Amino acid sequence: MKLLKLTGLLSLALLFGCADKEVTVPDVPPSQLYAEAQESLQGGNWTSAIERLEALDSRYPFGAYTEQVQLDLIYAYYKNDDLALGLATIERFSRLNPTHERSDWVLYMRGLTHMAQDRNFMHDLLRVDRSDRDPEPVKAAFADFDRLLKRYPNSAYAEDAQKRMVALKNRLANYDLATADFYVRREAWIAAINRAQEIQKTYPDTEAARQSLVLQKKAFEELGMQEQVERTEKLMELNPL
């Protein structure tokens, strides 16, 4: 109980401490404010950059810096892990500037931001397998990069987007593999077979597809389906781990 009270008091102290430290951006000319934002961006001071860019965006919504401020905010939000704000800014910019010359970069950043939503600091730190996590952000990122390649095949970001799609495809395949493994552990043999075959159909060139054959064989064995077991064994010989 004492520990809970202490934790609560600490949380309140941090909350009020953050409120006291809230910074009000000075009312200076937009050129000065933008120069300060650029200096913060170049120095990697994302919080300071965001404060000044947001001030510019709200005080001068139709100013000379409008479009560049939003582009800079997209980048700063991404670097600062303000991912929801980043996506909202991307949607706003794309809606207002559908034919902008940097639309390929905006779409690329949308993919990166969705990818970042799948990231978890503690999982990275502890090297925890996260293949069973919700893959919706991964699907969104894959769609973003796929759209980039189709709309802007000659973009400077196309090659990197294509490489990231390979990693994303493996991530999605591993999620389905984790699901198939769950079904095997629950002795849901038909569900395991269906999921394993779906992996082989959708992601045939992945490690997960080859691993799914092991689960498929196990499920067929448990169901006493010897002919299917033998077919799976042949597939395993053709696709060794």
TrEMBL record:
Domain Outer membrane lipoprotein BamD-like: 27-235
Protein encoded by which gene: bamD
Main location: membrane
NCBIfam families: OM_YfiO
Quaternary structure, from the entry: Part of the Bam complex.
Job of this protein: Part of the outer membrane protein assembly complex, which is involved in assembly and insertion of beta-barrel proteins into the outer membrane.
Matching Gene3D superfamilies: Tetratricopeptide repeat domain (1.25.40.10)
Keywords carried by this UniProt record: Cell outer membrane, Lipoprotein, Membrane, Palmitate, Signal
Location in the cell: Cell outer membrane
Tagged with keyword Nuclease: no
CC annotations in GO: Bam protein complex
Signal peptide: 1-21
Bilayer disposition of the protein: Lipid-anchor
Name the record gives this protein: Outer membrane protein assembly factor BamD
A Pfam family it matches: YfiO
Organism (species): Vibrio thalassae
UniProt cross-references to PANTHER family, sorted A to Z: OUTER MEMBRANE PROTEIN ASSEMBLY FACTOR BAMD (PTHR37423:SF1), SOLUBLE LYTIC MUREIN TRANSGLYCOSYLASE-RELATED (PTHR37423)
GO biological process, one term: Gram-negative-bacterium-type cell outer membrane assembly
Record-stated family: Belongs to the BamD family.
Keyword Membrane found: yes
